[in-house]
Structures are given as structure tokens and as C-alpha cells.
Amino acid sequence: MENLRARPETIALRSYARLVEACRTLSTQGGWRDRDEICRALARTVARLAVRLGRADGDLGSSEHELIASLVRLDRTYDGFLEASLSEAMADEIPDGSASIVRAAAEFDAREGTSLAREAVEGFESLAYAIVGADGRIVLSELDSIQKWIDGLYGALGDRPAPQNESYRVKVGA
Asked: How far apart are alpha carbons 126 and 132 in whole angstroms?
């Protein structure tokens, strides 16, 4: 059972590392005036995501706190922007820079023939689901909210989600 509880943390750490590496690539090779600009935007976005999703079920519990602390420890090995972003403002006041990061990565991909934008979207998606699953309680409204956000990020890639009608829904049972 302990191994299952560690899984969201492992997924979150891997996802965050992928996102940081993508943003570092963009900051060093993407022609940014301020090298740290996109990495700070990522930290603010992840801080917002962690706090909002962590308390979406009404309680930012110990599991979410532990996951956020693990992300901060990992971030210290990179640029160390996450901790400051968590302490500088309430989550609702922190801007969501995810779409801007994805669009910047898409521009870079078009120029360089890479796939950073898709990696960023997948990193945000897996990080969000790991945060929601950290406490073992998943609320359907959390999943709906995440799905709308992720659909928007895939839209920034040019991928549009399938229309939500009966012909696309999965039926469970008979």
C-alpha cells in the first residue's frame, strides 16, 4: 500500500523535471531576453496548480503538503523559483502561464523541429493528475476542471478535443 501512495509523488517529480527541462531549453535556446522569465512563469503556474488542486476537495492535507514539499526540494536543484512562488501570493492571484509556455514551445518546435510543446502539455497533465491523486481522494469536479484546462492546452498545440456527445462517451456496463 505504501508503494501506491508514493506513486503520485514520483509522477509529480518526473513531470515537474520534464517541465523544468523544457523551460530551460526554451530559456537558453529560445531567444528570451530574460533567461529566467519562462522558468519563473513555470514556477508560478505550478504553485498555482498545486495549491488550487490540493485544496479543491476542501482541504490542503498532509499528503498534498508532502507532495508540494517534494516539488520544492526538487526545484532547489534547478532554479529554486517554486518556493518563492508558493510564498509570494495566494493561488488565485498567481497567473496561469501554462498556455503561454505551450505557445512559446510550439513556436520553438516549428523553428527547431522539436516536440517541446507536446512534452510540456503532457507534463502539465500528469502533474495535475498526480496532485489530485496525492491524498487518495479524487472529486469529480477536480477531474472536470483539469480536463477543461488540459483541453485548452491541447488547443494551444492546435489539437482540438473530441466533441463531448454521446458518440464519443465511453459506456460502462451493459
From this structure: 10
Give the span between the Cα atoms of 113 and 116, in whole angstroms: 9
Q: How far is CA 40 from CA 53, 93, 130, 144, 158, in A?
A: 20, 15, 21, 27, 25
Domain range for 81 is 2-158
Residue listed under C-alpha cell 472529486 = 139
* Inside any domain, residue 170: no
Calpha distance 129→12 (Å, rounded): 8
In a domain, 140, yes or no: yes
Q: What pLDDT is stored for residue 1 in this prediction?
A: 37
Where do the H-state alpha helices sit in the chain? 2-29, 37-54, 62-76, 81-88, 98-112, 116-133, 140-157
Please, what sign has the CA dihedral across residues 8, 145, 168, 100?
negative
Domain count, the chain: 1
Q: Residue 173 falls within a domain, yes or no?
A: no
Identify whether 99 is part of a domain.
yes
How does 129-140 read in b/e, with b if 16+ C-beta sit within 10 Å?
bbbbbbbeeeee
Residues 77-92: tens digit of each pLDDT: 998 899 988 887 565 6
User: What does pLDDT average to in each consecutive run of 10 residues of the chain (174 residues)?
Assistant: 64 95 89 79 91 75 87 92 81 80 92 94 94 82 84 82 42 38
Q: In degrees rounded to 5, what are phi and psi of residue 34?
A: -105, 110
